[in-house]
Amino acid sequence: MSFSFVRRAALTSAICSSMALAACVTPPRSAPPAPPVLAPAPAPVIQVRPVEAEPIAPATQPALAFTPRGTPPVDAMLAYADKLRPLGTPELATEIARLGDPGDAPVVQMQLALVLAQTRVPADLARSLGLLQRVIANPTADAQPLQPLARVLAARYLEQRKVEDERDRQAQQARDAQRRIDQLNDRIEALRAIERSFARPASAPAPHTNGGKPATTPAP
User: What is the pTM of this model?
Assistant: First the structure.
C-alpha cells in the first residue's frame, strides 16, 4: 500500500466523519418573528350637537316677554295685560313702538289691542277694537285659543267706547249750554245798562242871572 493511497483514505475518512458530525448537530432555532405592530384604533368621533340659542322673537312675531315659554296662550295674554295695567303713557308708547305692525300674527294683534286700550285715547280704542275683530275672524290654529278672550274684550271695549262717546257728547252739550248762558248774560247786562240810563232823572235848567241880580217877575 502506497503512501498516497493511505493519505487519500485518511482524507476520505476525515471528510465522512465531518459530514456525519455536521448531520448530528441540531441547527439553531430561528428567532420568532416580531409581532406585527398594530396601528392604534381611531378614536370614536363624538358628534356634539350645538346648543341652539333660544330665538329672539322680532317685533312682528308673538313676544310674550313677561311670561315663561309653554304658558297657555290665554294665561299668557292675561299675564301680559296685568303687566300693562300700571304702565304710564311713556311706557305704553314704548311698548306700542316695540310691537310695531302686528301683521297677521294673532298674538301680537291682541297684545297691541291691549296696549292701545290703556292709552285712554278714543282713536286708539277704535283701533284696538279693529285688531280684536281681526283675531275673532282669523280661522288659523294660532287664533282659535284666543278668540273667546278676544270676544270678551271686544264687547267690553265696545261698551267703553259707547260710554266715552256719551260722556263726550254730554260734555259738548254742557259747553254749548254754558256758551249760550254767557251770551244771555251779556244781553241781560246790556239791557240793564239801557234801563239804568232811562231811569236817571232829568237835570233842572240853570237859572238865568242878570248882573248878579235876581230876575224880577213882571207885575200882572
Answer: 0.52
Spans of all domains in the chain:
73-163
Burial (CB < 10 A; 0-12, 13-18, 19+), residue 105, is buried
The string of pLDDT tens digits covering residues 40-75 is: 555 555 454 444 444 434 444 444 454 556 678 899
DSSP the chain: --HHHHHHHHHHHHHHHHHHHHHHSPPPPPPPPPPP-PPPPPPPPP-PPPPPPPPPP-TTS---TTS-TT--HHHHHHHHHHHHTT--HHHHHHHHHHH---TT-HHHHHHHHHHHHTS--HHHHHHHHHHHHHHHT--STTTGGGHHHHHHHHHHHHHHHHHHHHHHHHHHHHHHHHHHHHHHHHHHHHHHHHHHHHHSPPPPPPPP-BTTBPPPPPP-
